[in-house]
Amino acid sequence: MTWYEALPLLILASSLIPGIIIFNLPEERRGLRTTLNLAGAAIKLVFIGFMLWGVARGEQYEFRYSILPGLELVLHADALAMLFVTLSAALWFLTTVYAVGYLEGSPHRSRFFGFFSLCVTATVGVAMAGNLFTFFFFYELLTLSTYPLVVHRGTQSSMRAGQVYLAYTLTGGAVLLTGVVWLYGLLGRVEFAPGGVASVLVPAYTDQLRMVFLLLIAGVGVKAAVVPLHGWLPQAMVAPAPVSALLHAVAVVKAGAFGVVRVVYEVFGVELAQSLGLLMPLAVMACITIIWGSFRALWQDDLKRRLAFSTISQVSYIVLGVALYGPIGTVGALAHLVHQGLMKITLFFCAGNFAETLGVHKVSEMNGAGRRMPLTMAAFSVGAVGMMGMPLTAGYVSKHYLSEGAAAANVPWAAWVLLLSSALNAAYFLPILYRAWFRSADGTWPHEHVKRRGWKETSVLLLFPPLISGVAVVVVAVFADHSWSPLAWAKLIADRQYLSSVP
Amino acid sequence: MIDPLAWLILLPLTWAAIAFLLGPTRGGRIAQAGIALQLVLALWIATEVAGGSSRQHAAGGWRAPLGIELLADGLSAIMLLLAQAVALPLALYARAYFTDHPAGIRHFWPLAGFLLAAMNALFLSADVFNLYVTLELVGLAAVGLVASDSTAKSVAAALRYLFATLVGSGAYLLGVALLYGTYGTVSLSELAPLVEDAAPYATLLAAGLMVAGLMLKTALFPFHFWLPPAHGGAPSPVSALLSALVIKASFYLVVRLWLGLLMPVAPPAAAQLVGMLGTAAIVWGSVMALRQPRLKMLIAYSTVAQIGYLFLFFPLATHTAPDAAQSALQGAAMQAVSHGLAKAAMFGAAGVVILSTGHDQVARLGGITSRLPLTVFTLALSGVTLMGLPPSGGFIAKWLLIDGAISSGQWWWVIAMIAGGLLTAAYVFKILRHAFLEKEQSATFRRLPRMLEWPAFALALASLAIGLRASDLLRVLGAP
Amino acid sequence: MLFALTGIVLFAGGIAGMILQSHLLRKIMAFNIFGSGAFLVLVGLGQRDGQIDPVPQAMVLTGIVVSVAATALALALARRLLNLTGEMRFPREGPDD
Amino acid sequence: MKTLMRLLVLAGCAAFVAVAGMAMLVLPEPPIRLAARVSAELGNSGVKHPVTAVLLNFRGYDTLLEIAVLLLALLGIATAAGGDAVTGRRLHGNPQAFLQSLARLLAPLMVMTAGYLLWAGSHRPGGAFQAGAVLAAGIVLLYLSGLLPAPAGPSWLLRLGLVAGFLVFVAVTAVPLFSGGQLLQYPPDMAGALILLIESGLTLSLGLILAALFLWLPDEHEEAEE
């Protein structure tokens, strides 16, 4: 096995193996467990660094394992995969640090971090999947490994949330499976390739292709929380904050959105999807979701619930970008895949900090939080204004490209939708900022666990992750033109998608 | 030169007889040794068959039609492998179980020995009358095992089971009689060329009788009434043996007859009917499983449901395109194997729960995640296989079956399978949901020997692993 | 041939009895009846052209021994059930718990 | 409702009889005639009676499994009986002297008959099963007439007696395998002797098994006392 085959496996193993070891660790082996976690996360980053370097030099990293004739597990590192892998690995590192601090002294940590590692392994698998079968394989693995995290608290309410989560995701998986098998029946094998592979079936199987597209998009749409398949997401926020952060920013929701990208661009091919008239309905769905999510967010008093609805709307930006025919929209979508992750994880980290430090769970309790926890609140504010699309933040960059893309694909109303949604974002984020910064704390906090020590407003492990991700939100925007920025990658990928299909 | 075919039958017969000599509660060690040897033999046959050569053996040196012939082809090789591979961990498990909980061990080892011998004989036989004798052997051994803790409940269950299997084999025997009357032979190899689509009514009748009888023995809906009390009431090692292997024996025989003998006379409508019964079994079994308060009854009903998947093979393989039939057969084989491993693991885990907490109320499982983590993992992993999620063998089975359904243009079976998978998830996660609850709901948590938890876990792990090694397994199966 | 036809009748009757009779002893008898029915068909068809065919006779001998064994087991179980429940029929199955 | 069910079942059975009857009346001639082949090979079977030849040579493998079935039934009874099989059933009430003397007279005759049947099996109707049955009847008779003490549980010796025949059979089945032969493949010249060996083993064990099938039946009176 050469280095080029081994590297993708190593990237999986760097979280899988620690996970398996951690499962067997007794609860009290805190030190060893933490070391394993961080070491695994760090090693993964190093490997990915190697791979980025190689892919940029145009090297091919691919691992193949045949389960049945014609049915292969393929891990393949193309530009799109690298975008998602890098995002998830980087944010996993932050989240691990955060989770170590967050779960300080709570029970079942070995189980938690075990499934945590499995979850990331599955996400990375989804990212590097080289064909539809492999994608489905890790996609279901993701469902299974996240369930124990969602119900981790073991209370009745978390069990109910877990049930809803399963009901949605498993059904989605079943629908997806049908589509996948169907397509394999038609094509024999479905390798991801820029420009898509399904065009050979036109015109003989046009109707079947439409059915398959519907099945596949419905399948991934559940995890992407596209209305009306979004019901599970607000429920799932009963999970511990690091889990919500991972679910919303990296793992589940993103896997869904990423699935949409893969299906539209690399299975069907954007040209085919356009010619079959599949993009427009998708765009409409996305717009409905964007508006609906923002509206619902307005009325939520529970902070994490408000963030959850905001996720529903933000993730559909990606779907919208994919559905806008033309490279600019694509760039916007892919850039937002990364940017939304950075912003949303910052927000969830902060929400977790308020809950863990002050026992603040509701927006209405946040008066004066900014004075008590300035650093956290600053990070939160950056994420929030980013969501609104303020210039010099990640959100601005992606929204800019999205509305450009809308114009280019001459669906102007999509641009209006984006504008409206920005307004709504402002409407549900600004009150929070106002309360936190300009109101004074009314009396004592609901439940203050951690006293402030000097500049340390809360425990260090909880403080740094949001700060780092918050800074990142700005950096990716300021250095957007740098050749290593997510935006640059997005452009690179978009070019490939359209070059390969445009003669 | 040792002939694995003959020894796969003689070995268990011998150790069963010796175990009987040793006395009602003894014989565990010799049984384990014997099964280990059998596993080696089964692997030997499997590798040979995978190499493309099938083994024959003419008992008494008399070839058919005068004598009885034994034949090991891909299908029988896989079933033999499954039987021994499940039996070995179960033997380890059973010894630990019965040392911890001596009630119900009376004559377990000799009965298990005869059961294994009978199943191996059944998988190898190529003579419809000899198959009848092996069927009866399997049936009586299973009944004896069910009755082993001789409480009113289990005796009643055993008696119900006995009557069911007797009717089943009676119908089968009548079928044999008609076949012999029509063709003058009972050897499969001789019969196969004689049975063609312009067969006399008697052949059709015989086919109907044999298949119906075997369905009764396989507990296909609506003939499933006897299964849940029998499998749910017996001691856990017995339940595991019955659910994982015994029903597969009669299912194997239906497939063998269908493919090797009755296909030409089988009307497509019949195949569709069988498929519908399978679907009904999936739905009914899952719904009933969901409603069971007791863990073991839940698992027993899940067996009723999983049997349904096996029978979806018939509509997909009867008078359809060869590649559809191929993937249908492969899917059925995968389903049989992975369900065998997973179900044995589940019943094993249930037994652990019972020994540790003294009950198997699903609603009172709370807290076992912290007390019996390995067992919870066992339940979860085997659950993954039953749900047909990756990377399990059940997933590959489902994939192949759906592929067969789509490529033979019978999309309605796809709906059945998808819905079945979701129903399965419903009852599997019912278990896990209660298991994950924090607060402990059992008075006692006894510590148990490791030999009790690990074999079940190994079985569950195997049911996942074959998902990744599917190609090797299906190479043994070869082309139908 | 006459044997075979009788056998069919016996078989059908036995099955009917198996389904309809609730008393265990009668069920066991019913089993013996349809068993013998099957044997009769086996032998009857074997010698329908007059000359004796030893093969089905040997098979029937085997079959008889099997059914004797089964009958004995059934009797033992039924007897046991009688001892435990005091009834010679299946107990009403209550909720399993 | 119940009567409806009844009618349905009966109608179904009647229909079955009609169909099956028709099917058998139009049965063609079987393409294969085994009887001829049996008589052709009878010479090499080691016995003169065709049925015995089929039972213990041509299809001897069936017979091996069939003994296993008997043992299984025995095991099943022993397990089902729970604890009480160990003690066996005790005799209730005292038998009359007449019955005892009759039994004393009959027992040796029965043993002789069994022996004869065993030997006769090789060339005319008879053989191990018939012999075993007579033997079993003798044992049951002796026991009922109180001449035989209640079997004090399956002792080691008794168990040996029960499986001896089966073990001999298995041994004879296995031996040819070591010389590269097939299951149960007798060398033609020794066939007769081996068959006789098997049959005598079986006669003993079958006698005991059949008797045990009767004697080990769980006893209601005992339960009543508890």
Structural descriptors:
heterotetramer; B: 480 residues; mainly alpha; two-stranded antiparallel sheet; 2 strands; C: 97 residues; Helix Hairpins; elongated
Notes on the structure:
The complex is a heterotetramer of chains A (503), B (480), C (97) and D (226). Helix content of chain B is 76%, strand content 2%. With 480 residues, chain B is mainly α. Chain B has a two-stranded antiparallel ribbon with strand order 1-2. Chain B is globular. Chain C has a single domain (2-85), classed as Orthogonal Bundle (Helix Hairpins). The longest helix of chain C is centred in the last third of the chain and has 32 residues, at 54-85. Chain C is elongated and about 50 Å long. The mean pLDDT of chain C is 88. Chain D has 226 residues and is mainly alpha-helical. In chain D, helix 4 (60-80) packs antiparallel against helix 7, helix 6 (128-144) packs parallel to helix 8 and helix 7 runs antiparallel to helix 8 (191-215). The two termini of chain D are 41 Å apart. Chains B and D meet through helix 1, helix 4, helix 5, helix 6 and helix 8 of B and helix 1, helix 2, helix 4 and helix 7 of D.
Low-pLDDT stretches of chain C = none
Let me know the average pLDDT of chain A. 90
CATH class of chain C: Mainly Alpha
Gyration radius over CA of chain C: 17 Å
The rough form of chain C would be described as: elongated
Describe the structure concisely.
Chain A has 503 residues and is an all-alpha fold.
List the helices and strands and how they pair.
The complex is a heterotetramer of chains A (503), B (480), C (97) and D (226).
Chain A: H1 3-23, H2 30-56, E1 62-68, E2 71-76, H3 79-102, H4 109-128, H5 132-150, H6 156-187, H7 206-223, H8 232-236, H9 241-249, H10 252-268, H11 270-275, H12 279-298, H13 303-323, H14 327-358, H15 369-372, H16 374-388, H17 394-408, H18 412-438, H19 460-478, H20 486-501
Helix pairs in contact in A: 1-2, 1-4, 2-3, 3-4, 3-9, 3-14, 3-19, 4-5, 5-6, 5-10, 6-7, 7-10, 9-14, 10-13, 12-13, 12-18, 13-14, 13-18, 14-16, 14-17, 14-19, 14-20, 16-18, 16-19, 17-18, 17-19
Chain C: H1 2-20, H2 24-46, H3 54-85
Helix pairs in contact in C: 1-2, 2-3
Chain D: H1 2-25, H2 34-41, H3 50-58, H4 60-80, H5 97-120, H6 128-144, H7 156-178, H8 191-215, H9 220-225
